[in-house]
């Protein structure tokens, strides 16, 4: 029958809205189960399924280049400011350190305070430290809105709020970008020391 709904349709709809993670158990199982059928279907739409079973995330991306598109976009795209990009790289760096260390858990959980302390080293001191910390708070909130952080438990004290740093961040900031950025930061820090 031509009007039969594909078994993978619910997962396809979820993927159109954003990445799917292994923590969403039923969606993840369907995604892995119907991977081949979904891949074939997406190719017909000019889309590619990116599925990382080891890190437990999947998303769709355009398989055609920007120049080939006629203004139609299936997947959500978010452009980030420079500071938002810096925050992403810092979160990705925390993820890299976590994976190299003796991780006893699969997920990286950090308190807002810990993320702020880490980020503070890389953001220029503004006229006021208070303003800088508020800016970092805003960047943490933006990272959450953009789907790279997820609140893992609520806390009355904002700085004690815990976040799960999502592994999908590795798809946005690969190890090459991370290395380039770290070299730039090191060079920038050296200049500040010389002129300070």
Radius of gyration, rounded?
A: 20 Å
CATH class wording of the largest domain: Mainly Alpha
Ends apart, CA distance between termini: 73 Å
Average pLDDT taken over every residue:
82
* Spatial strand sequence of the major β-sheet: 1-3-2
Proportion of residues in extended strands: 5-15%
**Count of distinct strands:** 6
Largest sheet: 3 strands, antiparallel
Low-confidence segments, given as residue ranges, are: 68-74
Q: Portion of residues in helices?
A: 40-55%
Structural class: alpha+beta
How many structural domains can be distinguished in the coordinates? 2
CATH topology description of the largest domain: Arc Repressor Mutant, subunit A
- Taken in chain order, the helices and strands follow as HEHHEEHEHHEEHH
Task: Tally the helices.
Answer: 8
Q: Name the shape in a single word.
A: elongated
The assigned CATH architecture of the largest domain is Orthogonal Bundle
Describe the fold and architecture:
- By secondary structure, this protein is of the alpha+beta class.
- It has 2 domains: 9-68, no CATH class; 82-195, Arc Repressor Mutant, subunit A (Orthogonal Bundle).
- It has 8 helices and 6 strands.
- It has a 3-stranded antiparallel β-sheet with strand order 1-3-2. Strands 4-6-5 form a 3-stranded antiparallel β-sheet.
- Strand 2 and strand 3 (57-62) form a beta hairpin.
- The model is unreliable at 68-74 (pLDDT under 50).
């Amino acid at each position: 029958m031509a009007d039969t709904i594909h078994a993978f349709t619910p997962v396809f709809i979820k993927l159109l809205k954003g990445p799917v993670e292994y923590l969403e158990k039923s969606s993840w199982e369907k995604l892995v189960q119907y991977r081949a059928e979904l891949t074939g279907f997406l190719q017909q739409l000019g889309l590619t399924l990116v599925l990382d079973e080891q890190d437990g995330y999947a998303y769709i991306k355009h398989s055609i280049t920007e120049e080939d598109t006629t203004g139609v976009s299936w997947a959500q795209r978010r452009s980030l400011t420079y500071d938002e990009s810096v925050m992403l790289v810092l979160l990705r760096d925390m993820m890299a350190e976590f994976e190299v260390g003796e991780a006893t858990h699969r997920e990286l959980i950090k308190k807002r305070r810990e993320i702020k302390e880490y980020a503070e080293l890389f953001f220029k001191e503004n006229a006021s430290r208070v303003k800088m910390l508020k800016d970092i708070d805003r960047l943490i909130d933006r990272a959450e809105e953009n789907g790279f952080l997820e609140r893992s438990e609520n806390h009355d004290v904002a700085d004690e709020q815990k976040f799960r740093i999502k592994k999908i961040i590795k798809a946005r900031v690969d190890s090459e970008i991370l290395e380039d950025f770290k070299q730039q930061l090191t060079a920038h820090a050296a200049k500040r020391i010389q002129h300070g």
